[in-house]
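Quick check before the chapter quiz. The format below is the same one you will see on the exam, so make sure you can read both the input and the output lines.
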Amino acid sequence: MSDSQSRKPRTRNLTRRSALAAGASTLFAPMLASGQTRWKPDRPITVYNPLAAGGVCDVHLRFLGERVSKALGQQVLVEVKAGAGATLAAAQMVHAKPDGHTLACMTINSLRYPHYQDGNWHPLRDFSYIAGLSEFTFGVVVKANAPWQTIDELVAAGKNEPEKLNYGTSGIGGTGHLLTIEIEQSTGAKFTHIPYKGGAEFMQALLGEHIHFVPDGAQWAPFVDSGHVRLLAMATAERFPKYPDKPTLVERGVKAVAVSPYGLVGPKGLPNGIVQTLHEVYSEAMNDPAHQPLLDRYIQVPWRRNPAEYRAFAEKYFAEIRPMLVKSGLAKG
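Here is the expected output.
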């Protein structure tokens, strides 16, 4: 996306990146040792998931929740709240009591939503930022038997027969949608957008040949590995180590790099001790040896941010993304 300046450069060596992320936990961990006791919930914690059941985010939240449950002595329940362009989870959590028992996973879409339309919540006013978790890696894929062998051929088809080809993403105004708008603006191609609730749905649609391609997060990675799906190009700043022979969109003359991290937030006014405890236990869960292999399966990367860093990112991105949304016609000038 044109907002690529918000992205921190990816480390090219995945093993080294994982080690650095784990080692950095001491820098991110809240300082609870100086006489401050860890907050203990008195009932189960509910985390709203903004994306569809069975998707990457859902699997990730449940993995972390199992480990946080053990650390805090209360079950962490993940409740799907898909819809409204992946903003429903955070929106429905806003008016919860700020006692740490109701949280939400917030996608980057929540930082775009107020630019699209007025609502009864605002991401910079109504959330307590807790922890950055991960970042979706984006690419453009087609079914293995599709006629397009390269991203150039797909773009050419979109220019020769405008709007004939359909593509699926996780929602209107989402990163995949914006990514494709930038591809269209850069190349003159035109495609027809079909939004879905999440990756599990748009992959079923692709495999069932209801859509022609997917320009979205790497729910597609296992299908590329199995040979059911063909990867045409990555929407990363540089070539991705797992697919070194696949070009980036930038290499093919399309100035588009997708930015799509997600993290954990709570209602406004969440006490600092609760925020710090939750950040600490989620950081510990991300240090579990099985965590990086889970992310690797979907070629996701860790996106560790402490509460202050997460809020600083949100404030910066919220301001910088607006011109792109206005240019795309999704937000009023």
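If your answer matched, good. The chain has two domains: 4-135+262-327, 138-234.
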